[in-house]
Amino acid sequence: MLERCLLTLAIFPQDSIIKKRVLIHWWIGEGLVTPNGDSTAEEVGDQCIEDLISKGFILRGNRKHCSQVKHLKVEQWIREQQGTKRPTTSSGFVLHNFKTCFNVDRHNLRFEENGFKAMKNAAVMQLGRWQTSPKHHIEAASAELLNWLADFNKLRYLSLRGISNITYLPPSIGKLTDLMILDLRACHNLENLPVEVTMLKKLTYLDVSECYLLDHMPKGLHSLTKIRVLKGFVIGNSTSKDPCRLWELASLQNLWKLSIRIGRDSAGKKREFHELTKFTALRSLTITWGATASTPSNGVRKALSGKSTAGIFNLSPPPNLDKLDLRCFPHNRAPEWLTPEKFPKLQKLYIRGGRFRRLGVGTEFNSVQVLRLRYLPDFTMQEPYLLKVFPRLTILEVHQCRNLPSINRKL
């Protein structure tokens, strides 16, 4: 298995920094990594990455203080040993064993008929951005680019990440019944997610984060019983009469990672927030307030005002969270539910953007080991007080908080 995974690295240009998750999704799509015993395919892929690092085939691309590997760099001698000749279609896409179509360096996407014939049996289509920088621009030649989807019924992984000019997904997306991973992150022109997505019963990963024109999620997402990661669930912007509600997802027993975008018009949707306490399988939760198409690309530097504050002081958090990430929080005092009693198992707390000034007054978060504070211009709590509130910290990061010095270290 390790040797086959190693072969995939030869397609990347010299000195490329690669997202770890892209590699693992590729390997899952091709069937190079599969579930093994109690380990999911993602966990097997993570172990494969660690093995490649330990053997010196790839390098960590992370900050030194971060123990998690998120970005990777391929050693030059690996590319030379594996060979650099890459089969391509007439449209210039790299084919890997004719199971994978990988957009290595194209900025303008268009398909020709001859290219379709070579790619029809593909299990993996990485058309979107794999680079770490969001500045790498990819543009679809036309909104009709995806009308060919129904012909690729063996797809297990489809990435359109960061591609502009994609305004919709055709209903034929529902015919990709083997699809396991759908990455639509940062498709900034995407206006609608069709209800046919709910026909993808093998889907384990769906990412629509940073798709700021999406105003609702399609009804029926609760039927995707295998889904483990759902990013970008929208609350409060909907003009739809019957969108999917957050509380409907409580029955998803495999859902361990969820990110939510709370829109300006979330008033009156209190049940959405109360029902979070029923998400007993959830381990990682990200909540972003008020993000729209005008939000900066990092998604955290600006807290937007409006009605998005509804329900924030009545949120009932999931009981088993390991990680909580709060972005663009619109008040200067911490929400009433952010207490140690509500998060007895919390180990990682990230607060990015917004009007936070203080948190945890008179409390101690004894379980929290990692605290990251970023883009908080009004935050006033200095390091000595932070260490009292979080006495068991092992990592503290403070970045662009003008009242505090920058901190980025292990304790």
Automatic annotation (TrEMBL):
Keyword Repeat: yes
Domain Disease resistance R13L4/SHOC-2-like LRR, first and last residues per copy: 146-399
BP-aspect Gene Ontology terms: defense response
Keywords: Plant defense, Repeat
Keyword Repeat: yes
Domain Disease resistance protein winged helix: 11-78
Signal peptide positions (record): none
InterPro entries, per database record: LRR_dom_sf, LRR_R13L4/SHOC2-like, WH-like_DNA-bd_sf, WHD_DRP
Protein name (record): Disease resistance RPP13-like protein 4
Source organism phylogeny: Eukaryota, Viridiplantae, Streptophyta, Embryophyta, Tracheophyta
